[in-house]
Write a structure and sequence with these properties.
Layout: H1 14-20, E1 31-37, E2 43-50, H2 60-69, E3 74-80, H3 90-105, E4 109-117, E5 120-123
Parallel strand pairs: 3-4
Antiparallel strand pairs: 1-2, 1-3, 4-5
Length: 130
């Protein structure tokens, strides 16, 4: 199923991105959301992947394919940590690097990877991981 479209919404700031993915916070299983952005950071589409209690498999090729099909200029990724700790795991950091490199080869920028844990949100861009 293709990502859902929301073309009128603009994601201009980190606050906008956190608001877009706020529904991920507090979940009992790990869930991942992707936002595909076009010109002026207009939302072209969203994809959500539901995982397990402590992990979710992210199909990097599918994310890249969606970016191509939507003619996205940028992608945002966000996921939750059901244990409430927003610090990135080694797997989170590795995925972020792989996704950023893969998207970059397509001319698409990974804007940020947000991790929701409890009442806190960690930004991998702010941490220097992107």
């Amino acid at each position: 199923m293709p990502p859902s479209a929301h073309p009128a919404l603009r994601i201009a700031t980190r606050h906008d991105a956190e608001a877009l993915f706020a529904g991920l916070s507090g979940g009992a299983v790990e869930a991942v959301g992707f936002a595909y952005l076009g010109p002026e950071r207009r939302l072209l589409g969203l994809r959500h992947i539901i995982g397990h209690a402590d992990s979710a498999t992210v199909p990097v090729a599918r994310i890249a394919r969606d970016a191509i099909l939507l003619s996205a200029q940028a992608v945002l990724i966000a996921h939750n940590h059901p244990d409430g700790d927003p610090r990135p795991s080694p797997a989170d950091l590795a995925l972020t690097r792989r996704l950023a490199q893969g998207l970059d080869m397509l001319g698409v920028r990974l804007l940020d990877h947000l991790i929701f844990g409890g009442d806190h949100v960690a930004s991998l861009r702010d941490m220097g991981a992107i």
